[in-house]
Amino acid sequence: MGEGKRRLLIVLTIAMFIAMVAAQSLVDPMQVAIRKGEKSVSSSDNSELMVQLPGQFVLASAVGFKEVIAGALWVRADTFFHEGEYQAIVPIVRLVTWLDPHNIDVFTTGAWHLDYNFVDENQLSDKRYIPASVALLKEGIANNPNIWDLYFELAWTHYNKKIGDQQQALYWMKKACEHDGYDVNSGKKVDRPEFVDRMLAHQYEKIGDFDNAVKQWYKARKRVEHILKKNVHTSEYVDASSLDVCDRNLALLLLRMAWRYGDMDAYKQGIDVAMRVGKHDRGMSQWKQATLAAKKDYEQRLASGKPFGDVRKPIDAGFQVSVKRLSPKVLLISGKLNLVPTSEYQNLASECFTNWFAENQKADANNKVAWRDGSRVSWMLADYGYKTPDLKTFNWKLDNNSMVVWDSIYVQGGSFSSKIDLSKNPDFYPFKAKKYTLTVWVSPQQPSSPDFIQDRIGWKGEALTDKNYLDTKMLPGSRCLKWEKTITREQLL
Amino acid sequence: MIIWSIAKTTFGDAMRKKVVQIFLVVAMGLIIISLSFSQALSFSRQEGSATDIMLVKSFGLGLMALAGWLISLVMGVSLIPQEIERRTIYTILSKPVKRFEFIIGKYLGAMLTLAVCVGLMGVVFFGVVIAKAHGADVSSATQTSGITNVGSHGADIWDWNMLWGVVMIYLQFMVLSAVVILFSVFFTPTVNFFMGLGVYIVGVMASLTETLATTQDGNMILKWFYTIIHWCIPNFDKFNVTNTLLHPEAHITNVANYTGKVALYGLTYTLVMMLLAVIIFEKKEV
Fold this sequence. Notes:
The complex is a heterodimer. By secondary structure, chain A is α+β, with helices and mostly antiparallel strands. Chain A has a domain at 315-492. Helix content of chain A is 51%, strand content 13%. Chain A is built from 17 helices and twelve strands. Chain A has a five-stranded antiparallel beta sheet with strand order 7-6-9-12-11. A three-stranded antiparallel beta sheet of chain A has the order 4-5-8, with no helix packed on it. In chain A, helix 5 runs parallel beside helix 7. Chain A is globular and about 110 Å long. Chain A starts with a helix and ends with a helix. Chain B has one domain (2-139, 156-283). In chain B, helix 1 (2-16) crosses helix 5 (99-135), helix 2 runs parallel beside helix 5 and helix 6 (160-186) packs across helix 7. Chain B is globular and about 60 Å long. The interface between A and B is large, with 75 and 85 residues.
């Protein structure tokens, strides 16, 4: 080859190299877009994870067996699960989500383990893992933003049930309702289950946004109709009972709005919906009888024109809390809560439908009750000034010196009592802070206050009064009861 | 015509190699064995059949990649040194065969061999996936809470995503073979094998070198080192979209567009390697 040709080839090589760099520049952003969720695990975390992975697994993953390795690890996690070795599962979950970031099941199961399964000897879970659990789910959402599953998991299981942050639960539930699902076998897009839409309606109701709750029930019903029409031959689980569930919930919501706040428009609408639901019942069902009684009550109230509303009449909660140290790190929390004496149900508007007070009066001495039990009192013991960390990405590094624990106590016969033993698990309860805050509170929201308790005190605790512990700041817009005490370490140990 | 003759001879020689045949047969056998994979996890909310199919696909694609990688290296490292060692190169080059024709012919022969190998494995792979999908219990549930399933679909017998997966595997070995051919111009087969292996491993971890290049705050030497590595070592990571292809909910917006651009990248990289090989081989004393 002549020198000229050689030079030409060198120039051509340089030109091709530039073309290659340009081509790589075209692919890079697309690759980032494809793997955008995976970026939430930082490179340092990756290195940390790689160290945990046995060498042969690293090699196998590198040459293209990522999902196979993830599957094998997941089988291993299953073994640990059945052996009750929950602590061992979560590092595996972390590896599996790193290797296979689109495996929804692993994110949900991993978050569940973090939330529920690290328990002390009294079956109280370690609440310090909750921020990590939420971060894990958010990472899952970043990896899988187009399906409803993880939004719902975060909303319902974590913010609603575990953390009790209903506004966050509402936010994520709305997100879940913006997405459909996919079929894991075929990859085809499928409608999200209709219960997701129903849960959003419940969530609106929970925070007291009744207008949107009513709208959402209608939306959920319409969607069920649409699904039934579209999938007439393929739908195995959605049937007319889904419509019935929507109607009954909507009817009860409207009727409760009427009984609790005296909203006559809601009363009329509620009876109409309840009548429609009753048409499907065979014979004179309890629902039909209750609806007819409510209709009669509505007509009487319409004729009399008197304002009414079960939550207008205040009820003194008589909240009392006492805390006694039984032994080092063992406390007895006890007290009184006037929720709800049977007599409070007499003449409630809801009585026309529920007939609970009348039935109780008629009951024999053995079955007659003086209290309508069902309320729960919540308590939390935490380091003084403790704030839940807001993790942006999943983080294992717990502050082992911090302490936070909470649970609830059932109220029976107007009083409550529970022994809190924090002496057996020093890893969970290090007691390193000098001061602690013990908070005991009552929320009008479910599950602390079930429907029949809310019938008397309202969705937002409107009827609640208490000369000492009424609180309107804890849940903005709601009336709660809150007792708080600062305790020194010496007092606890 | 000369190039095509060399390519055909190279293909014939490669396919007659016992080691290539063994890799091919073992890989196809293992892909078939993957049919028996079963992973019904009792605490999993996903139906076993879906997980089974995903594992079969993952295992099959992974195995094709592994076998292709081994075949590329084992075959590629000996393509040119073998001719020199046997002294057959004198006969070839003494005929009116130009050196660049020899290099390109060798490369095309290697690509033909890989195409046949990947093709055969691909056929077996698709057969296994179809058999698995056909036999799967398709009444899967997709939801988290296990209450309602609306509009469920049966497992798709033919999954186009898997075809893209096979194409991507072939494309990355097109690049790896070019790198190995370049190395074989001046390295011995043993050194070439390990060099090729090293390049492949670094290339598979390209996203890591990219991250390292952007996170070396203050250390300019390291920053430049990782930047050069990122741009000069072939980014095999770009060809690896198995995970995305396996999860139908995480679609690549436009698979054809992505594959096209990756193919363009692979082609330009291959051309650079081949040009360098030709330039060096022209000066090499054989």
